[in-house]
Amino acid sequence: MKFYLLDDDRNIRRILTQIITDRELGTVCGAGSNGHEGLEEVFDLKPDIIIADLLMPEMDGITFVEHARPGLPDTAFIMLSQVSSKEMISAAYEAGVEFFIQKPINSIEVENVIQKVRQNLTMKRTLQKVQELFTEDIPGTLPEESETITTDDGDETLPSHQESLATLQIILQRLGISGDIGSRDITTVVEYMILHHAKAADLTLHELCSQFCDSPKSMEQRIRRAAAAGLVNLAHLGLEDYGNEIFTEYSNTLYNFEQVRKEMDYIRGRSDKHGNIKIRNFLNALVMYCVHK
């Protein structure tokens, strides 16, 4: 993994470089002291991960991310901050920041956060490979027993069918919906999407549900209600603790963070509108988690 470091404090850049190097987390391909300098370099360097300070002179970290992210869709952003303001943290998440590292810097926290971001990047890249499989003309299946398959470039392996379903159940439990009747429907649909990727690629949720019952509308409604319940539970976690591990991971993958924030505003009585869910994106993200080893 290639890192770019952005902080007006030279000592912070030096410490981060040492942690990344000593713990073999990747290589530092560049560093800058302000947002303008960073924008001049990152588009050419194309780092995998950018660690940027929130409060910098001339251009703050949020503004930098807002300018850099559109041109670096495959780059993950981590933000350094001493600020505990929920409004500012929320703005950073909306800009595209995936995780925060609190100052003063703790090497263990830095390593843990970087490992999580590395894992998320790997999963996103695996999803891209899976989506490519979805567009193939010839239907295929994942193995149903204990063996694994390897992607075309030989870099990744996809877990077995049973491992994938076990992963799915863990995620549904974390969302607090494993006991919901709709979670069984979600499991059925996700399993079908994994086993019949090419055939399922262009199907709507209604068409997917039609594969299993004579009342696809009822099944579809149960899935939507379960996904909505997961959104509500996630929003409550965020209200209690913005740094909650489940909240930070799934609000940016299974759901859209902006919509999670809308649900949080609804719960707090600041809005009369719930957050929305793109159910196909939700299911595709579940598939991503299931097929990533």
Automatic annotation (TrEMBL):
This is Stage 0 sporulation protein A homolog. The keyword DNA-binding applies. Keywords: DNA-binding. May play the central regulatory role in sporulation. It may be an element of the effector pathway responsible for the activation of sporulation genes in response to nutritional stress. Spo0A may act in concert with spo0H (a sigma factor) to control the expression of some genes that are critical to the sporulation process. It comes from Mordavella massiliensis. InterPro entries: CheY-like_superfamily, Sig_transdc_resp-reg_receiver, ST_Response_Regulator, YcbB. GO terms for biological process: phosphorelay signal transduction system. One of its GO terms (molecular function) is DNA binding. SMART domains: REC.
